[in-house]
Amino acid sequence: MNRILGIGSRIEHSDHGKGVVTNVTAKMYWVTFIDGGLETIGVNDEFEVIEAVDDEVDTVSFYEIEKSLREILQKWSDITEIVPLGDKWNGGTMTLQPADPNLAAKEIPVKTFFNKIVMLRDRLRVLEQKINSNKSLDEEEKIDIQQYITRCYGSLTTFNVLFKNKSQQFVGESSKR
User: Fold this and answer.
1) pTM of the entire structure?
2) For the chain, how are helix, strand and coil distributed in percent, rounded to 5?
3) C-alpha angle with apex 85: 81 to 121, nearest 5 degrees?
C-alpha cells in the first residue's frame, strides 16, 4: 500500500503534467495541474512525487479555498479564467480567402482567434454583472438587456468547436439553464 500524500504535495503525472494535491480521500486525489486544471486521480495511479507533504490535516481543503477564490474573482473582476483550446486546433491556422483571386489570403493562428473569442465572452460576462448590479435600471430593463446578451451567446455557439472543455462553451437562449 502506498502512503497517502497530504494536501499541498506536488506531483508529476504522465498524462496531466505537474500539479498540486488540493484534496484527498482514501481512494482519490484532487490535483490542480498547471496545464490541465483540476483532475481526480486514484491514490494508486502512477505518478512521480516531487515533494510530499505528510499528515496535512486541514478543515478546509485547498480545493475549497481555490474554488471559492475563483468564484469571487469571476464575480467581481474581469480576470479571465484559463480556457484551453481544443487539442486538434493547437498549432492550426485559419485562412480567410477573398472572393477576388487578385487579393491575397489572410492566415490567422487559430489560438489568436480563439483568444479573441474568449475575451469577447469574458467581456459579455462583465457586462452582465454590471447590468445586474446597476441601481438605476429597473428589473424589466435588466431582463430586456439580459435577453440581448443571451442572444449574443447564442450567436457565438458556432465557435464551441474550438473549446476543449464543454463546460466553457457558449450557451444560447434555447439551451440555457
Assistant:
1) 0.48
2) 40, 20, 40
3) 50
